[in-house]
Amino acid sequence: MPIGIKRNFLPISIICLVCSSTFGLKINAAVTNGADIYCFMRNGGNAHEPSWEAAYQFIKNKKQGLFKTSPKQAASLIVEEVVQDPTKYENCINYLGDLYTGESSSKGFSDDKELENTVNSIENTEKSPKGKYIDRYNY
């Protein structure tokens, strides 16, 4: 191959390399993750359990390999994704605590009286007996 032809391929290959990496970023930006599923379902009015089950199942299926993803790892992945992009998940931040408590949070309170009544009712509920460990991630 003559030297002139090799020099012509160099700029073309650089352009192809830049374009392929740019297109790759656009493709990766559209990838769904566990936080997308969990937050979409919670913002749609679903309770914690079905939203968590769907997100956890997605995370387990997405990860290839010999070892399975534990529920605690999956919850950490969702929290990490939300923390990395708080503007994308701004409506989901209120639900992150539910990943660790297992209770469903409501979307918001209309006034302080309603919040105070909810806090009082939570304080008056019977607590689990001491010494009894309940693992909410035991599936």
Number of helices: 6
Structural class: mainly alpha
- Global Rg: 23 Å
Element string (H = helix, E = strand): HHHHHH
Contiguous low-pLDDT stretches (5 residues minimum) are 24-28
Indicate the mean pLDDT.
74
Beta strands, count: 0
End-to-end Cα distance, whole Å, is 63 Å
The backbone outline, from C-alpha atoms, is globular
Number of domain units: 2
Main pleated-sheet profile: none
Summarize the model shown.
The protein is mainly alpha-helical and 139 residues long. Helices cover 59% and strands 0% of the residues.
Describe the protein:
This protein is an all-alpha fold. Residues 24-28 have low confidence and may be disordered. The chain has two domains: 1-31; 33-123, no CATH class. Helix content is 59%, strand content 0%.
Structural features:
mainly alpha, 6 helices, globular
Question: Layout of SSEs?
Answer:
Layout: H1 3-29, H2 34-43, H3 48-62, H4 71-84, H5 98-101, H6 112-123
